[in-house]
Design a protein that fits this description.
By secondary structure, the protein is an alpha+beta fold. The chain folds into two domains: about 130 residues, MutM-like, N-terminal (N-terminal domain of MutM-like DNA repair proteins, Alpha-Beta Barrel); about 120 residues, Helicase, Ruva Protein, domain 3 (Orthogonal Bundle). The protein has six helices and ten strands; from the N terminus they run αβαβββββββααααββ. The two termini are about 25 Å apart. It binds a DNA duplex through helix 5.
DNA sequence: ACATCCACCTGCTCGC
DNA sequence: TGCGAGCAGGTGGATG
């Protein structure tokens, strides 16, 4: 379940269903489930058994569970990953990638991932200065973190020579934003995706940050965006923010501000939705 | 260092 | 009905 609001919905579920429990057994399936953990599935399980999960944290779209020995169980949902808390006698879903049993004998935690772009890892290399596991050092803070600095973001994005949407999708500049919320934030801020980053004015960047925070906060409050059963919370529930989307997936529908038909354009092999009137194409844009 | 492209997957929908 | 093409919310490694 991909972007920040959906991952946050999962994090809240992990807090509810996994934190405070001690792992009794771990099984992983498929050779793409474990990432950057060369010791292999046997060692992965051995290192986790007996460990208590202390918290559920998130930076952008990355999740991690700090363990009582100082290591971190990392997870990324990719395009289709889910965590589900289910009764042990519930039949396995197709695409089950990992199973965590707990010493209390209660609900299992299952990691399910159809497209296998997601994965799990175990990182015991400590934390960065701003409190993320070392292996996430390349990921910028997301705009809800206290470690996020608006001033540093402004300087960093202006240093780039690229288009605005490319920049906000770059997780090393700002994390958590994906294709849906990029389009939604750009619409709210009335900015075109091809605006050249080096020409952005401070008020425009401030507007964009405010819009990104607002749209993602609204989406978190709605439990995230669920177009279909692939994207659900840990308890299996769908979010309903798709009803509040203003441009994403709304090609041909009227812009709620000005009535102009929303258009869809190809952009780096994916789609961008925008209002051609509220978000005028720049004379000299960058893609 | 930075910008861009492409590979990595499965499954659904659409048009022929 | 069958089949191929196109599309889907992401990341990171290779290549300029």
């Amino acid at each position: 379940m991909p972007e920040l609001p959906e991952v946050e919905t999962v994090r809240i579920g992990l807090e509810r269903w996994a934190v405070g429990r001690t792992i009794a057994a771990v099984e992983t399936y498929g050779d793409r489930t474990l990432r950057r953990f060369l010791a292999g599935p046997g060692e992965f399980a051995a290192r986790l058994v007996g460990r208590r999960i202390e918290a559920a944290r998130r930076r952008g779209k990355f999740l991690w569970l700090p363990l009582d020995d100082g290591a971190h169980l990392l997870a990324h949902l990719g395009m289709s990953g889910q965590f589900r808390a289910v009764s042990p006698d519930e039949p396995d879903a197709s695409h089950l990638r990992a199973r965590f049993r707990f010493t209390d004998g209660g609900t299992e935690l299952r990691f399910i991932d159809q497209r296998t772009f997601g994965g799990l890892s175990l990182d015991d290399s400590g934390e960065t200065a701003d409190g993320a596991p070392q292996s996430l050092a390349h990921v910028a803070p997301d705009p809800f973190e206290s470690a996020f600095s608006d001033a540093r973001f402004v300087a960093a994005i202006r240093r780039r020579r690229t288009g605005l949407k490319r920049a906000i999708l770059d997780q090393t500049l700002i994390s958590g934003i994906g294709n849906i919320y990029a389009d939604e934030a750009l619409w709210r801020a009335k900015l075109h995706y091809a605006r050249a980053t080096e020409g952005l004015r401070r008020p425009e960047i401030d507007r964009l940050l405010a819009a990104a925070r607002a749209v993602m906060a609204d989406a978190i409050a709605a439990g995230g965006t669920s177009f279909d059963a692939l994207y659900v919370a840990v308890n299996g529930e769908s979010g309903w923010f798709d009803r509040s989307l203003e441009v994403y997936g709304r090609e041909g529908e009227p812009c709620s501000r000005c009535g102009t038909a929303i258009v869809r354009q190809q952009f780096t092999n994916r789609s961008s939705y925008l209002c051609p009137r509220c978000q005028p194409r720049p004379r000299r844009g960058r893609w």
